[in-house]
Amino acid sequence: MTVSAALNPMPGTLYVVATPIGNLDDITARALRVLRDVALIAAEDTRHSARLLQHFGIATPLAACHEHNERDHGGRFLARLQAGEDVALISDAGTPLISDPGFHLVRQARAAGIRVVPVPGPCALIAALSAAGLPSDRFVFEGFLPAKAAGRLARLEQLKEEPRTLIFYEAPHRLLECLGDLERTMGVDRLAVLARELTKTFETFRSLPLGELRAWVAEDSNQQRGECVLLVAGWQPPPEEAVSAAALRVLDLLLKEVPLKRAAALAAEITGVRKNLLYQAALERQG
Ligand code: SAM
Fold this sequence. Notes:
This protein is an alpha/beta fold. The protein has three domains: 6-122, Cobalt-precorrin-4 Transmethylase, domain 1, CATH 3.40.1010.10; 125-232, Methyltransferase, Cobalt-precorrin-4 Transmethylase, Domain 2, CATH 3.30.950.10; 245-286. Helices cover 43% and strands 17% of the residues. The mean pLDDT is 93. The chain binds S-adenosylmethionine. Pfam families: RsmI_C, TP_methylase. Residues 241-285 form the RsmI HTH domain.
């Protein structure tokens, strides 16, 4: 046991604190209390977070915890935690770890037996989903798509038959390209929602089929600025084709003469209707 652990048998707590995504009024009372009370704040960008803390009159020291140093320097924060000090983790905006650094630190802290406590609050994907008007009972958060077209198209190909609502983060300068690739893979008619500048002065929600949404963004360069979340309606299987009365008549005649499987195959050849559909119809007709 180290000297500090002997003096301070209770390790500190790592608080994972959400901060505003635009509107500073969205910070929670609990977040402010925790940020005031901890010994140290681990921040993605200390200069950016210094402005936030200054706005709220918080003087807690800041230390950098960004994606380049998180894995190696996590030990620095762990040592403070193990010595009994509380540490808060914040990112530049919204909830840490959600397309932001923090995962390695949280994992290391948990592995070291340190209590990790979330202090929930703003998160762009949840804010967008809560007001987009797309099904929200099940959804998939894909974060940022690959920046290069080939990787992006490959990922979208894998997602095109995903039935849950899809949520993407996108950088404004790639929005048009991304909409073009979504249109190409998911089709012009798939409903999508662009949620821009959430909680800010120019907050915009636009819900249109992908083809129209891409054209709308292409025509208005203002829509290609600021921060945005893209939501795409999940894939819906095409409605079952109805088997025509004429095809069923052919099927019925064949069912009297040959076994069910053969009847469905022959009826498919004669009528051009899919064999599976006729097979199902034959099963139903024979109870
Ligand atoms: N951790 C953040 C969260 O909880 O949402 C996300 C950080 S990620 C680096 C930044 C991306 O989140 C932006 O590129 C954008 O896609 C989305 N985002 C953040 N703030 C936003 C806002 N006010 N309006 C729309 N999208 C936002």
